[in-house]
Amino acid sequence: MIQFDRVSKRYPGGHEALTDLSFHLDDGEFAFLTGHSGAGKSTLLKLIMLMERPSTGHVLINGKNLGRLHRSQIPGYRRRVGVVFQSHHLLFDRSVYDNVALPLQVSGYPVADTGRRVRAALDKVGLLGKEKLNPIALSGGEQQRVGIARAVVHKPRILLADEPTGNLDPALSEEIMALFRQFNEVGVTVLVATHDIALISPLHCRELKLREGSLVGGGGHEAV
Fold first, then answer.
1. How far apart are alpha carbons 151 and 66 in whole angstroms?
2. Which of 22, 37, 67, 80 maximizes the CB count within 10 A of its CB?
């Protein structure tokens, strides 16, 4: 599903964020991406999101080389990838419903289909009764749930999360991880970047470890 083949990313000025990364995540796998601040976790996720392009090497999703996608194909590709951020990036001048509906509205979904999908996503994260509220009225954990609902409302094949529990207490963090598990159980490939080792240890998932832009653990027999 997600394959990195000798991928490096060098930014202008010479900073090399990633160096010669090779690994493969299976369709429907749940894995964690760990490493210190600046290790390259966010850059790796941005390569999958097509927010960045590799300097060398290839990123393949479901066998397709992202480097060969035409600019016009990128929006369609991104609709198959859900993204959850540490800072929720919610719009506080819109309701919870409107925040979750935004990706569908941008993609031109019919109004009736949008309503069904939004309510299904909010139901999944336990917020169906709060769709009319402004996100500012919600707790931090609830705001993160809105962000998750928005990420999965278009039923992506891949769900990426960049430090999704960084601002939450341990109990809420466990709840958020349980939600990711639920999506994974219905076939979604999940990759979570985090530094919270205590949180991920009980889950017994593969851990891709980055150190100064290099993969130092987790590739194992599945490395490309």
1. 21
2. 22
